[in-house]
Amino acid sequence: MITVIDYGAGNIGSVLNMIKHVGGKAEVARDAEGVLAAQKILLPGVGSFDNAMTRLAALGLVEPLKQRAREGFPFLGICLGMQLLANGSEEGTMAGLGLIAGKVRRFRFEGQTAALKIPHMGWNRVTPVIPHALTQGLEHDARFYFVHSYYFDCENPEDVLLQSEYGLSFTSGVQRGNVMGLQFHPEKSHRYGMQLIKNFVGI
């Protein structure tokens, strides 16, 4: 059973549908009790970093999420949910969950890359950096759907799971133990996203 965290930062319907489509079971948690009962957590998110952390704090979910991660339960953040795993973000002033050491930084382009648009939006390739259960069976030319203006700058290079190119080489997936993150939207990425969600169901 995957517990999807609903804290008012994005529509979770497509995530729930994708989990069920690949044969998984999903439920929704909106309070600390639901989080502390979760055996596997998926943290989605769209919008701004501080707004998301404010919502998590208002619902009393910050410490329960950290506790479940520390206890070793599989934990996957997607899009803004991945960025919330960091220590903090240039987008705001609030602390993140601090589950994977790093800082979320804004894309800044100059010179030959100055014409690139922000946010980075649309389909892009990802390249696995290390073997991992989350990316098992991923096609060589897999493409995923991105919408973001900020990227995760890992403090420890060994935490980088996936990389992509957009004006620079940036981290598009992270991992440390039971905690994982994907910058793109797997639920909007057709068969490629289905593969990753199916893998998470099996972890």
Structure description:
There is one protein chain. The chain is an alpha/beta fold. It has one domain: Rossmann fold. Helices cover 25% and strands 29% of the residues. The chain has helices spanning 13-21, 32-36, 49-58, 62-70, 80-83, 190-202, and strands at 2-5, 26-29, 41-43, 75-78, 88-89, 102-106, 120-125, 127-128, 143-148, 150-154, 160-165, 169-176, 179-182. It has an 8-stranded mixed sheet, with helices on both faces. α1 links the parallel β1 and β2. It starts with a strand and ends with a helix. The mean pLDDT is 96.
Note the topology.
Blueprint: E1 2-5, H1 13-21, E2 26-29, H2 32-36, E3 41-43, H3 49-58, H4 62-70, E4 75-78, H5 80-83, E5 88-89, E6 102-106, E7 120-125, E8 127-128, E9 143-148, E10 150-154, E11 160-165, E12 169-176, E13 179-182, H6 190-202
Parallel strand pairs: 1-2, 1-3, 3-4, 4-13, 5-6
Antiparallel strand pairs: 6-10, 7-9, 8-11, 11-12, 12-13
Percent of residues in beta strands = 25-35%
Low-confidence stretches: none
Proportion in helices: 10-25%
Question: What's the tally of helices?
Answer: 6
The geometry reads as globular
Order of helices and strands: EHEHEHHEHEEEEEEEEEH
What is the highest CATH level, the class? Alpha Beta
Mean pLDDT: 96
Q: What is the count of distinct domains?
A: 1
Q: Which fold name fills CATH's third level, the topology?
A: Rossmann fold
Class computed from helices, strands and strand pairing: alpha/beta
State the major sheet: 8 strands, mixed
